[in-house]
Write a structure and sequence with these properties.
The protein is α/β, with parallel strands linked by helices. Helices cover about 45% and strands about 20% of the residues. The strands form 2 sheets. Strands 3-2-1-4-5-10-11 form a 7-stranded mixed beta sheet, sandwiched between helices. Bound molecules: adenosine-5'-diphosphate and 6-O-phosphono-beta-D-fructofuranose. Adenosine-5'-diphosphate (ADP) binds next to helix 4.
Length: about 325
Protein backbone atom coordinates (compact mmCIF):
# COMPACT_ATOMS: atom_id res chain seq x y z
CA UNK A 1 0.00 0.00 0.00
CA UNK A 2 1.61 3.26 -1.16
CA UNK A 3 -0.89 6.02 -0.52
CA UNK A 4 -3.51 6.18 2.23
CA UNK A 5 -6.06 8.76 3.37
CA UNK A 6 -7.60 9.56 6.74
CA UNK A 7 -10.83 11.35 7.67
CA UNK A 8 -12.88 12.18 10.77
CA UNK A 9 -16.66 11.84 10.61
CA UNK A 10 -19.78 12.36 12.72
CA UNK A 11 -19.67 13.99 16.14
CA UNK A 12 -16.15 15.19 16.96
CA UNK A 13 -14.46 13.57 19.93
CA UNK A 14 -11.47 14.77 21.99
CA UNK A 15 -8.51 12.69 20.85
CA UNK A 16 -9.40 12.59 17.15
CA UNK A 17 -6.37 14.80 16.43
CA UNK A 18 -4.05 12.40 18.23
CA UNK A 19 -5.43 9.61 16.04
CA UNK A 20 -4.87 11.61 12.83
CA UNK A 21 -1.33 12.45 13.94
CA UNK A 22 -0.57 8.78 14.63
CA UNK A 23 -1.97 7.66 11.26
CA UNK A 24 0.16 10.27 9.49
CA UNK A 25 3.41 9.59 11.32
CA UNK A 26 3.09 5.79 11.42
CA UNK A 27 2.05 5.83 7.75
CA UNK A 28 5.10 7.89 6.78
CA UNK A 29 7.30 5.55 8.84
CA UNK A 30 5.86 2.68 6.77
CA UNK A 31 6.95 4.56 3.59
CA UNK A 32 3.44 5.63 2.59
CA UNK A 33 2.11 9.00 1.44
CA UNK A 34 -0.69 10.07 3.74
CA UNK A 35 -3.56 12.35 2.71
CA UNK A 36 -6.07 14.06 4.99
CA UNK A 37 -9.66 14.37 3.80
CA UNK A 38 -11.33 17.56 5.02
CA UNK A 39 -14.91 17.47 6.37
CA UNK A 40 -15.45 13.71 6.60
CA UNK A 41 -17.45 11.95 3.91
CA UNK A 42 -18.42 15.34 2.45
CA UNK A 43 -14.74 15.86 1.63
CA UNK A 44 -14.51 12.39 0.18
CA UNK A 45 -17.46 13.04 -2.13
CA UNK A 46 -16.17 16.51 -3.03
CA UNK A 47 -12.50 15.51 -3.48
CA UNK A 48 -11.21 17.65 -0.61
CA UNK A 49 -7.82 15.94 -0.11
CA UNK A 50 -4.54 17.36 1.14
CA UNK A 51 -1.21 15.60 1.63
CA UNK A 52 -0.08 15.56 5.26
CA UNK A 53 3.56 15.38 6.26
CA UNK A 54 4.93 14.81 9.76
CA UNK A 55 5.18 18.56 10.48
CA UNK A 56 1.60 19.22 9.29
CA UNK A 57 0.31 17.37 12.33
CA UNK A 58 2.47 19.22 14.85
CA UNK A 59 0.71 21.07 17.65
CA UNK A 60 -2.64 19.25 17.33
CA UNK A 61 -2.16 16.51 19.93
CA UNK A 62 -3.40 18.64 22.81
CA UNK A 63 -6.39 20.12 20.96
CA UNK A 64 -9.97 18.85 21.10
CA UNK A 65 -12.09 18.54 17.96
CA UNK A 66 -10.65 17.59 14.58
CA UNK A 67 -8.24 19.77 12.64
CA UNK A 68 -9.48 17.99 9.47
CA UNK A 69 -13.06 19.08 10.41
CA UNK A 70 -15.81 16.56 10.91
CA UNK A 71 -19.18 16.53 9.19
CA UNK A 72 -22.45 14.72 8.76
CA UNK A 73 -22.99 13.99 5.07
CA UNK A 74 -26.43 12.71 4.04
CA UNK A 75 -25.27 12.39 0.40
CA UNK A 76 -22.81 9.66 1.37
CA UNK A 77 -25.73 7.48 2.49
CA UNK A 78 -26.81 7.23 -1.16
CA UNK A 79 -25.34 4.98 -3.84
CA UNK A 80 -24.56 8.04 -5.93
CA UNK A 81 -22.62 9.66 -3.07
CA UNK A 82 -20.61 6.52 -2.44
CA UNK A 83 -19.78 6.14 -6.16
CA UNK A 84 -18.58 9.76 -6.22
CA UNK A 85 -16.38 9.05 -3.18
CA UNK A 86 -14.88 5.96 -4.82
CA UNK A 87 -14.20 7.99 -7.95
CA UNK A 88 -12.35 10.64 -5.91
CA UNK A 89 -10.33 8.03 -4.03
CA UNK A 90 -9.21 6.60 -7.39
CA UNK A 91 -8.50 10.10 -8.79
CA UNK A 92 -6.08 10.72 -5.94
CA UNK A 93 -4.56 7.24 -6.23
CA UNK A 94 -5.55 6.31 -2.68
CA UNK A 95 -5.07 2.60 -1.87
CA UNK A 96 -6.55 2.55 1.64
CA UNK A 97 -8.72 4.74 3.88
CA UNK A 98 -8.87 5.23 7.65
CA UNK A 99 -12.23 6.41 9.02
CA UNK A 100 -12.15 7.88 12.52
CA UNK A 101 -15.68 8.06 13.89
CA UNK A 102 -18.63 6.52 15.67
CA UNK A 103 -21.56 4.28 14.80
CA UNK A 104 -22.89 6.12 11.76
CA UNK A 105 -19.41 6.74 10.39
CA UNK A 106 -18.55 3.05 10.63
CA UNK A 107 -21.77 2.21 8.79
CA UNK A 108 -20.35 4.45 6.06
CA UNK A 109 -16.95 2.74 6.18
CA UNK A 110 -18.68 -0.64 5.90
CA UNK A 111 -20.57 0.63 2.84
CA UNK A 112 -17.25 1.52 1.13
CA UNK A 113 -15.74 -1.78 2.18
CA UNK A 114 -18.68 -3.69 0.69
CA UNK A 115 -17.99 -1.86 -2.57
CA UNK A 116 -14.48 -3.34 -2.51
CA UNK A 117 -12.46 -0.40 -1.16
CA UNK A 118 -9.91 -1.17 1.60
CA UNK A 119 -11.07 0.66 4.73
CA UNK A 120 -10.11 0.50 8.39
CA UNK A 121 -12.24 2.19 11.06
CA UNK A 122 -11.02 3.74 14.30
CA UNK A 123 -13.50 3.65 17.20
CA UNK A 124 -14.10 7.28 18.10
CA UNK A 125 -17.19 8.76 19.73
CA UNK A 126 -17.99 10.18 23.15
CA UNK A 127 -21.11 7.94 23.21
CA UNK A 128 -19.14 4.67 23.66
CA UNK A 129 -21.85 2.86 21.73
CA UNK A 130 -19.63 1.15 19.18
CA UNK A 131 -19.42 -2.63 19.16
CA UNK A 132 -15.78 -3.74 18.79
CA UNK A 133 -14.11 -1.53 21.39
CA UNK A 134 -14.51 -1.55 25.18
CA UNK A 135 -13.91 2.18 25.12
CA UNK A 136 -13.84 4.69 22.27
CA UNK A 137 -11.80 7.85 21.73
CA UNK A 138 -13.27 10.85 23.55
CA UNK A 139 -15.29 9.08 26.24
CA UNK A 140 -12.83 9.63 29.07
CA UNK A 141 -12.39 13.34 28.36
CA UNK A 142 -16.15 13.87 27.99
CA UNK A 143 -16.72 12.11 31.30
CA UNK A 144 -14.25 14.40 33.02
CA UNK A 145 -16.04 17.45 31.62
CA UNK A 146 -19.34 16.05 32.92
CA UNK A 147 -17.81 15.36 36.34
CA UNK A 148 -16.56 18.89 36.67
CA UNK A 149 -20.11 20.12 36.06
CA UNK A 150 -21.61 17.60 38.49
CA UNK A 151 -19.14 18.55 41.23
CA UNK A 152 -20.03 22.22 40.78
CA UNK A 153 -23.76 21.55 40.74
CA UNK A 154 -23.46 19.49 43.91
CA UNK A 155 -21.96 22.49 45.73
CA UNK A 156 -24.85 24.79 44.90
CA UNK A 157 -27.44 22.02 45.35
CA UNK A 158 -26.12 21.30 48.87
CA UNK A 159 -26.19 24.95 49.86
CA UNK A 160 -29.90 25.17 49.00
CA UNK A 161 -30.97 21.58 49.67
CA UNK A 162 -32.09 21.40 46.09
CA UNK A 163 -32.62 18.57 43.65
CA UNK A 164 -31.00 18.82 40.21
CA UNK A 165 -31.33 16.80 37.05
CA UNK A 166 -28.30 16.86 34.74
CA UNK A 167 -28.74 15.68 31.17
CA UNK A 168 -25.74 14.22 29.38
CA UNK A 169 -25.23 13.13 25.76
CA UNK A 170 -24.93 9.58 24.45
CA UNK A 171 -27.62 9.44 21.77
CA UNK A 172 -29.45 6.13 22.47
CA UNK A 173 -26.78 4.86 24.82
CA UNK A 174 -26.68 5.35 28.60
CA UNK A 175 -22.94 4.75 29.07
CA UNK A 176 -21.97 8.38 29.78
CA UNK A 177 -24.86 8.86 32.20
CA UNK A 178 -24.17 5.61 34.02
CA UNK A 179 -20.45 6.26 34.47
CA UNK A 180 -21.00 9.93 35.34
CA UNK A 181 -23.57 8.81 37.91
CA UNK A 182 -21.08 6.45 39.55
CA UNK A 183 -18.10 8.81 39.41
CA UNK A 184 -20.18 11.86 40.39
CA UNK A 185 -22.11 10.24 43.22
CA UNK A 186 -25.59 10.71 41.77
CA UNK A 187 -28.67 9.80 43.78
CA UNK A 188 -30.29 8.36 40.65
CA UNK A 189 -29.27 7.53 37.08
CA UNK A 190 -31.74 7.33 34.22
CA UNK A 191 -30.68 5.54 31.05
CA UNK A 192 -32.51 4.39 27.92
CA UNK A 193 -31.55 0.76 28.60
CA UNK A 194 -33.62 0.61 31.80
CA UNK A 195 -37.26 1.67 31.95
CA UNK A 196 -37.71 4.34 34.62
CA UNK A 197 -40.83 5.34 36.49
CA UNK A 198 -40.64 9.03 37.56
CA UNK A 199 -42.47 8.12 40.77
CA UNK A 200 -39.56 5.85 41.69
CA UNK A 201 -37.13 8.68 41.00
CA UNK A 202 -39.16 10.86 43.38
CA UNK A 203 -38.95 8.07 45.97
CA UNK A 204 -35.14 7.95 45.55
CA UNK A 205 -34.85 11.70 46.07
CA UNK A 206 -37.18 11.69 49.08
CA UNK A 207 -35.29 8.81 50.63
CA UNK A 208 -31.96 10.61 50.04
CA UNK A 209 -33.25 13.61 51.99
CA UNK A 210 -34.62 11.33 54.72
CA UNK A 211 -31.19 9.69 55.03
CA UNK A 212 -29.75 13.10 55.81
CA UNK A 213 -28.42 14.19 52.42
CA UNK A 214 -28.68 17.89 51.69
CA UNK A 215 -28.85 17.56 47.94
CA UNK A 216 -30.10 15.21 45.25
CA UNK A 217 -28.54 14.80 41.82
CA UNK A 218 -30.18 12.83 39.05
CA UNK A 219 -28.07 12.11 35.97
CA UNK A 220 -30.16 11.39 32.89
CA UNK A 221 -29.09 10.26 29.43
CA UNK A 222 -30.48 12.37 26.58
CA UNK A 223 -31.93 9.22 24.95
CA UNK A 224 -33.99 8.19 27.98
CA UNK A 225 -37.79 8.28 27.68
CA UNK A 226 -37.84 10.74 30.56
CA UNK A 227 -35.04 13.12 29.56
CA UNK A 228 -34.29 16.13 31.79
CA UNK A 229 -37.04 18.32 30.37
CA UNK A 230 -39.71 15.63 30.56
CA UNK A 231 -38.67 14.56 34.05
CA UNK A 232 -38.68 18.14 35.32
CA UNK A 233 -42.14 18.72 33.78
CA UNK A 234 -43.46 15.61 35.49
CA UNK A 235 -42.13 16.83 38.82
CA UNK A 236 -43.48 20.31 38.31
CA UNK A 237 -46.94 19.00 37.24
CA UNK A 238 -47.02 16.92 40.44
CA UNK A 239 -45.24 19.43 42.64
CA UNK A 240 -47.78 19.54 45.47
CA UNK A 241 -47.96 15.78 45.86
CA UNK A 242 -44.22 15.08 45.40
CA UNK A 243 -43.07 17.99 47.54
CA UNK A 244 -40.12 19.17 45.45
CA UNK A 245 -39.04 20.31 42.02
CA UNK A 246 -36.07 19.52 39.84
CA UNK A 247 -33.70 22.19 38.51
CA UNK A 248 -32.52 21.31 35.02
CA UNK A 249 -29.02 21.50 33.57
CA UNK A 250 -28.54 20.20 30.03
CA UNK A 251 -24.81 19.99 29.45
CA UNK A 252 -25.00 19.78 25.64
CA UNK A 253 -22.01 20.21 23.35
CA UNK A 254 -19.71 21.45 26.10
CA UNK A 255 -19.18 17.71 26.70
CA UNK A 256 -17.51 17.28 23.32
CA UNK A 257 -15.21 20.28 23.52
CA UNK A 258 -12.78 19.19 26.22
CA UNK A 259 -9.00 19.16 25.96
CA UNK A 260 -8.15 15.49 25.41
CA UNK A 261 -6.77 13.90 28.57
CA UNK A 262 -3.86 11.46 28.76
CA UNK A 263 -6.12 8.42 28.37
CA UNK A 264 -7.67 9.64 25.12
CA UNK A 265 -4.37 10.83 23.64
CA UNK A 266 -2.75 7.46 24.32
CA UNK A 267 -5.77 5.43 23.16
CA UNK A 268 -6.00 7.49 19.96
CA UNK A 269 -2.27 7.16 19.28
CA UNK A 270 -2.46 3.38 19.74
CA UNK A 271 -5.53 3.05 17.52
CA UNK A 272 -3.97 5.29 14.86
CA UNK A 273 -0.97 2.99 14.72
CA UNK A 274 -3.23 -0.08 14.75
CA UNK A 275 -5.20 1.21 11.75
CA UNK A 276 -2.05 1.67 9.67
CA UNK A 277 -0.82 -1.77 10.77
CA UNK A 278 -4.09 -3.32 9.58
CA UNK A 279 -3.73 -1.59 6.19
CA UNK A 280 -0.11 -2.76 5.89
CA UNK A 281 -1.19 -6.33 6.77
CA UNK A 282 -3.93 -6.12 4.13
CA UNK A 283 -6.57 -6.88 6.77
CA UNK A 284 -9.19 -4.32 5.83
CA UNK A 285 -12.94 -3.99 6.32
CA UNK A 286 -12.26 -3.98 10.06
CA UNK A 287 -12.60 -1.64 13.03
CA UNK A 288 -9.63 -1.27 15.34
CA UNK A 289 -10.55 -0.98 19.00
CA UNK A 290 -9.52 -1.98 22.48
CA UNK A 291 -10.59 -5.16 24.32
CA UNK A 292 -9.05 -5.97 27.71
CA UNK A 293 -6.41 -3.34 26.95
CA UNK A 294 -5.36 -5.18 23.78
CA UNK A 295 -5.78 -3.87 20.26
CA UNK A 296 -8.40 -5.91 18.41
CA UNK A 297 -9.66 -5.93 14.83
CA UNK A 298 -13.38 -6.58 14.41
CA UNK A 299 -14.97 -7.01 10.95
CA UNK A 300 -17.10 -3.96 10.11
CA UNK A 301 -19.93 -6.36 9.28
CA UNK A 302 -19.91 -7.53 12.91
CA UNK A 303 -19.56 -3.96 14.23
CA UNK A 304 -22.60 -2.96 12.22
CA UNK A 305 -24.77 -5.91 13.11
CA UNK A 306 -24.31 -5.95 16.90
CA UNK A 307 -25.29 -3.59 19.65
CA UNK A 308 -22.90 -2.88 22.48
CA UNK A 309 -24.63 -3.64 25.76
CA UNK A 310 -24.05 -2.02 29.12
CA UNK A 311 -22.65 -4.30 31.80
CA UNK A 312 -25.62 -5.13 34.09
CA UNK A 313 -23.26 -5.35 37.08
CA UNK A 314 -22.28 -1.73 36.55
CA UNK A 315 -25.95 -0.73 36.27
CA UNK A 316 -26.57 -2.46 39.60
CA UNK A 317 -23.50 -0.84 41.16
CA UNK A 318 -24.79 2.63 40.30
CA UNK A 319 -28.02 1.89 42.18
CA UNK A 320 -26.21 0.47 45.22
CA UNK A 321 -23.75 3.36 45.47
CA UNK A 322 -26.57 5.91 45.32
CA UNK A 323 -27.77 4.78 48.76
P1 LIG B 1 -21.40 9.15 14.26
O1 LIG B 1 -20.36 8.53 13.41
O2 LIG B 1 -20.82 10.09 15.28
O3 LIG B 1 -22.35 8.12 14.85
P2 LIG B 1 -23.50 9.95 12.33
O4 LIG B 1 -24.47 8.90 12.75
O5 LIG B 1 -24.04 11.32 12.12
O6 LIG B 1 -22.27 10.12 13.34
O7 LIG B 1 -22.82 9.48 10.97
C1 LIG B 1 -21.80 10.24 10.37
C2 LIG B 1 -21.86 10.10 8.88
O8 LIG B 1 -21.66 8.73 8.50
C3 LIG B 1 -23.20 10.46 8.25
O9 LIG B 1 -23.38 11.85 8.08
C4 LIG B 1 -23.08 9.77 6.89
O10 LIG B 1 -22.25 10.52 6.01
C5 LIG B 1 -22.33 8.48 7.28
N1 LIG B 1 -23.33 7.43 7.46
C6 LIG B 1 -24.18 7.25 8.50
N2 LIG B 1 -25.02 6.21 8.27
C7 LIG B 1 -24.70 5.73 7.06
C8 LIG B 1 -25.22 4.68 6.22
N3 LIG B 1 -26.26 3.91 6.63
N4 LIG B 1 -24.64 4.46 5.01
C9 LIG B 1 -23.61 5.24 4.60
N5 LIG B 1 -23.08 6.27 5.33
C10 LIG B 1 -23.62 6.50 6.52
O1 LIG C 1 -22.53 11.13 18.65
C1 LIG C 1 -22.02 12.16 19.45
C2 LIG C 1 -23.11 13.11 19.85
O2 LIG C 1 -22.53 14.14 20.64
C3 LIG C 1 -24.29 12.49 20.59
O3 LIG C 1 -24.02 12.26 21.94
C4 LIG C 1 -25.37 13.52 20.36
O4 LIG C 1 -26.66 12.94 20.44
C5 LIG C 1 -25.07 14.00 18.96
O5 LIG C 1 -23.70 13.71 18.70
C6 LIG C 1 -25.32 15.46 18.76
O6 LIG C 1 -25.15 15.75 17.42
P1 LIG C 1 -24.94 17.21 16.85
O7 LIG C 1 -23.56 17.64 17.19
O8 LIG C 1 -25.13 17.07 15.38
O9 LIG C 1 -25.95 18.09 17.52
Amino acid sequence: MKRIAVLTSGGDAPGMNAAIRAVVRVGIEAKMDVYGVNRGYAGLVGGNFVQLRARDVSGILEKGGSFLQSARCPEFKTEEGQMKALHMLREYGIDGLVVIGGNGSQTGSYALSKRGFPVVGIASTIDNDLYGSDITIGVDTALNVILEAIDRLKITASSHERAFVIEVMGRDCGYLALMAGIAGGAEAVIIPEVETDPELVADEIRSAYERGKNHALVVVAEGAKYNATKLASYFSDNHERLGFELRVTILGHVQRGGTPGAFDRILASRLGEAAVDALVDGETGVLVGLANDQIVRTPLEVVNSRKKALDPRVVKLAAVLAK
